[in-house]
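User: I'm curious whether this sequence folds into something compact or stays loose and floppy. Could you predict its structure so I can see for myself?
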Amino acid sequence: MILAHKFPLATTDIDAIPKGREPHEIDSYIKDVAAELGIQSDWLNPYFSTFTHTLPSDYGSRLIEVFKGKKLTVLALSLDEMLIMKCFAQRQKDVGHARALIRKGANIKQVEAHIESLKAKRIPGAAQALDFLDELRDE
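Assistant: Here's the prediction. I'll summarize afterward.
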């Protein structure tokens, strides 16, 4: 949200999924970076990967490049995909983030249609995600 969509948030970690690797496979590198920068060793948060199964199959075509270096490229989710993830996570802090995504231009109708398709497929949490989105819309 910060890098791709310029949201003024404070955070102590980065929600990320290393492409082609599991987080435990790069754990030593994560700890080396933490030591070098003097930050917490849990600065890379793979928690949100729990919800990636809820994303549209073509979400990769909408990823936004936020950094490209010699050995690292960083991509971020679009507004719509971020909103889908927030609807499934449903943490208290996600309410404000979801509102901000909507104000920034996330397409509620597309997000709703996608979550409804997941509900029809009986994806766990889809009904609650729709309720979360409905509550945001009703505000």
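Summary: Helices lie at 2-5, 27-37, 79-89, 92-104, 108-120, 126-138. The radius of gyration is 16 Å.
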